[in-house]
Every structure is written in C-alpha cells, then in structure tokens.
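Hey, sorry to bother you again with one of my protein questions. There's a protein on my desk that I can't quite get my head around. No rush at all, and the record is pasted right below.
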Amino acid sequence: MNENFKMLAKTLFGFEEILAKELRNLGAMDVKIGIRNVTFSGDKGFMYKANLALRTAVRILKPIRQFKVNNEHDLYDQIQTIKWDNYIDVNGTFAVDAVANADNFTNSHYVSLKTKDAIVDYFRDKVGSRPNIDLDHPDLQINIHIHNRDCTVSIDSSGDSLHKRGYRSATNIAPINEVLAAGLVLMSGYDGTQHFIDPMCGSGTILIEAAMIANNIPANINRREFGFEKWSDFDPDLFDVIRNSLLKKTRESTAKIIGYDKSPSAIYKAQDNIENANLEEFITIEEQNFFRTEKEIEGKTIVLFNPPYGERLEIDVPVFYKEIGNTLKRGYPGTNAWLITSDFENGLKNVGLRTSKKIKVFNGKLDCRLVMYEMYEGSKKGKYMKD
C-alpha cells in the first residue's frame, strides 16, 4: 500500500476555505488552512486525484525536506544532502522556483540560482555529469520556500499551473483565470441545481467551469500532462484507476447554463472552448447585448459575470455600471446576481443596488470585489434598492 505523506495545495487569496472544503470532500486528511494555501495528507493515489479534481488549487506540492537556514552557505549545504538521484535522472531536466520571505534572504531569484548550483554540483561530484535546466517543460519542478529561518524543499506534482485546464484554445482580450472562475462560481453557491447565466461571457471560461461543477466533471480531466507523470515512481495503472473512478462519479445536470455576449468574435471563441471541453450539450450561448435581455427561465437562477474593466475596453464606466443595475432591476427578478470588478469608485457605486454580500478577491494583481445583489420578485422589489 502507498503511505500517506504531507502535501500543500496553493490557491488564490480568498479561496482557502473553498479549497479546504474541496479537499475534505475528496477525502483528504489533516486539512489545515494557511494563507493562499491549504496543507493536507494523502497517499500517491490521492495526489493524482487532487491534481485531477481540485477546482481552486493552483498547484500541488510534495515537501521532501525541511531545515533551518541562516545564510546562503547553509542553503547550499542542506540542498546537497538531499538524494536528488531519487527524484531526477542525470540526463533529465529540472527547474527551480523560489519564494523567500526572510531578512537573510531578500532575493528569491538568488535562492533559485543557489539551489540550482547545489543540485548541479551534487550530480557532478557523484557521477561527473549533470542534468540540464529547462524552464518550460522540466522533468522535475522544484519549489523552495523560505520563511524567516525555515526552509521547505518541495517537488511540484502539477507541473504547469492547474489553471491551465487544457480546454481553452481561444481567448478574448483579458480572459479570466480558470481557477478564479471556478472559485467565483463556487462562492456564488452554485451547485448545478439552479439555472446559471453569464451575461457577458467572453470566451466562456465561467460557463465552462460552471458546467463542470454542475455535472461533477473533474476540473483537469482535459489536461494533457501533470508533473508527476515524469517522476520515476509514476504509476500509470494507479493513475488510470483514479481517473476512471472520478469519471464514474459524474452526473447530468438538467438545469440551464446560458451565456450572452454582444461580440460575435467572443461567441465564436466561447463555442470553440466549449467544444474543446466536450460540454456543448450543457451550455447555450447567444450573441446578445445584456442590456437588451431579460430572464426567460423559471426557477432559481444565479447570474455571475466579469464585466469589462476600464483598462480592458473603452467604455463610459459610470454609465455602463448604471445600466447593469437597471438591467438587473428590470429584467432579472428572482435571481442572485454576482459580479466581480476592480472599479469601486466609478463602477460599483453606480450600479444603484444594495449589495447583499461583498467579498475581497484578486484578479491577477488587481484588488477586486465579488458582490451579490439579491433581486426579489414582485412586491419585494423595493428591498434591492440602495438605501
């Protein structure tokens, strides 16, 4: 049997609780929430499962050594004590990613270089040859994290960031990160039992993530490769068992998932990406200007969208956001409407609706808010007006 070991799942700011819940639902043990990360325990099969299934994880790291460091010489010496030939062949390739948060290590790039030197010298001293550096597609991705005097050396089981799902071949001007999109959908409370509308769908990322949630499809089922597939202990038979067991747990949601965009090119790109994700039967998209639409479906509905920011498109921001509020009031009663924006002054303040929830998130480096407007039906109409 495979033994359990500690792992660390990195995530985006604000998604730690959601990621922890995802991990517990998958069967992780010892789940502990950090800042932009969640630690947990599981075996090799669970590591495969976490990479395949987690929607809000950016990458899954497997720590292999922890030690104290006071200076660069300590780092070099400690790195050399690791038996690197257990993890990489001398003819293989590797890359080092470092994060240093310590007064004695202020340059993360220098930490990466020092680590690389120690690994290269380890092989040169032992066999007279060395593995090469490959920053794009290394056989082994190594992560160094230094906080104060504590150094953790991990190997990255994901390889490329897990936001690279494998379904997106076409994007619009500023596509939303897939992990961010999935986290926003989960934060909205969407679970596939409600209808779902993205009225400014762009290249379709939010719709695709919603459809995968609704049908319990593993988030990274379309990825071509994970980092662990290049490891010497990779078990392809176990990986197939884990993958097939996840696919057996998919379901078919009957609720509607609808996307609008007024741009023909955006609709074309969204259709392409939806086809790549094999989700055509679950998602309907139409070339429509949101401001001229209204809700045409009965039952509980979640509206979630990522409006264009001023820096993305040339728009009159106050007028644009006022029209968002007017359209929701006029055409979308009986919905929970969510939007994410970084424009607080000219944007949010002009929507003209009272927010029911406001959550701090980041879109890349942009400080954003995910806000909800509860749109009542009939006589409760007054409740969603701003005080």
Residues 124 and 329 are 69 Å apart (CA to CA). Residues 108-127 form the longest helix (20 residues). Residues 379-387 have pLDDT under 50 and may be disordered. The radius of gyration is 23 Å.
